[in-house]
Amino acid sequence: MTNSARTPLSRERVLLGAVALADTAGIDSLSMRKLAQDFDVVPMALYKHVAGKEDLLDGMVDVILAEIEPPAPGATWKTAARTRILSARRALLRHPWASRIIESRPAPTPAVLAYLNAMIGIFRDGGLSAGLTHHLMHTLGSRIYGFSQELFNATATPDPQALAAAATELAAHFPHVAELATTASHDGHSVVGQGCDDQYEFEFALDLILDAFERRQQP
Amino acid sequence: MTNSARTPLSRERVLLGAVALADTAGIDSLSMRKLAQDFDVVPMALYKHVAGKEDLLDGMVDVILAEIEPPAPGATWKTAARTRILSARRALLRHPWASRIIESRPAPTPAVLAYLNAMIGIFRDGGLSAGLTHHLMHTLGSRIYGFSQELFNATATPDPQALAAAATELAAHFPHVAELATTASHDGHSVVGQGCDDQYEFEFALDLILDAFERRQQP
DNA sequence: GGGCTTAGGTGTACGCCGTACACCGCGAGG
DNA sequence: CCTCGCGGTGTACGGCGTACACCTAAGCCC
């Protein structure tokens, strides 16, 4: 009656479990030991399915990449790229830890290369030269994956008292920062902290870049 | 004769020592214990000068920020920003670990806020509206600090044998990536791996963004 | 069916890490 | 002279990734 009929581990089960754990407990709580605990298994058991923690993280990136929808056929390169990147962004927003992990990988996995290859293909097939495509990839940077480096990660202080205090502090010493923080660019009602619509800003920058390259394509 | 006349520690000495250690041994080798060893001191001694490792990393960012030259007065906002950002980039290139640390800080230090405040001031004093400045800051992203997220961090394989093998492997499965990797956009002689001039690409993207906002300033 | 291989889970152990807490020597100020 | 507190010490704890030897049970060939 030991109910020993556990479904056996596999690389895929380990990776999905790791993603789930990171989603619920936060990426900092993701350790081989905790992950093993989730499977009611001894830590070393994971090493039969994953080469080590680095390999685990690589695999998690691949899982996120797999959530990105393939590009819709029959669109201009600009809308195809835009759609794909915004789909990537949606995947990234489902897993807030993912951008940090993507940034930290020292070498690209085959899945990452395949993703980049497809993105480059969109531009080349759209008629952009190899050189211009190269520039475009560099200019997009991490936006290709659907995120951009925030100047400072939202500090999540839901306490309105401390928030107001921080605002006056900010205004006193860093007036320009304060002005921008309280200016919600495209709508009026905003406070410091969540005063800017990240999605809007992301699309604004993305479109600005894509438009600029479209102009250079046919002068 | 115990030569006990050590110059006492201080927050500044600790931070500079940490930067030096990260420069020489790599950021992954930077631990409170190793750092203490560099000072011939027991690990806990450091805690009299820094609150903990997070505070240490914050302080290291401040040290790097202090290396950035102040903006030259009497220039247009565009060249002022350009100069400052390229100076930031030079500082970052002196400390290859720095971008990873900057990215990872959960909250900005006063020094970071001061840097951003000065940068925003350049744009506002140059006549850009608050809204446009806001967009510009988002579009620049981490480029404000002098770096951009590389699609994949150079994997430093100086072995020409393995490198050539990787190149054919790449060409077989990811032809578009291979094409871009072997196309050095602005000069001809290049191989996969270091086939692109990161500095050129950085300035290209930076200028493209600044130019785009200049155009929007006065239509 | 008997023995062999082997994939997959176990147990123990090592060396690292950050840091809490109690302690103590010593120079300065009352 | 006595006290206070700054800065360095020693010990210890809990966590981490993972190397290595081991065991067990299922699958396979003869």
Walk me through the structure.
The structure is a homodimer of 219-residue chains. With 219 residues, chain A is an all-alpha fold. Among the domains of chain A are: 11-63, Orthogonal Bundle (Arc Repressor Mutant, subunit A); 72-148 and 198-217, no CATH class. Chain A has 10 helices and no strands. Chain A has helices at residues 11-25, 32-38, 53-66, 77-94, 98-104, 110-125, 130-140, 160-173, 175-182, 198-217. At the A-B interface, helix 5, helix 6, helix 7, helix 9 and helix 10 of A face helix 5, helix 6, helix 7, helix 9 and helix 10 of B. Chain A binds a DNA duplex (30 and 30 nucleotides) through loops.
Keywords:
homodimer; 219 residues; mainly alpha; Arc Repressor Mutant, subunit A; flat; DNA-binding
What is the strand and helix layout of this fold?
The structure is a homodimer of 219-residue chains.
Chain A: H1 11-25, H2 32-38, H3 53-66, H4 77-94, H5 98-104, H6 110-125, H7 130-140, H8 160-173, H9 175-182, H10 198-217
Helix pairs in contact in A: 1-3, 4-6, 7-10, 8-9
Chain A binds a DNA duplex (30 and 30 nucleotides) through residues 8-9, 31-33, 41-45, 47-49, 52-53.
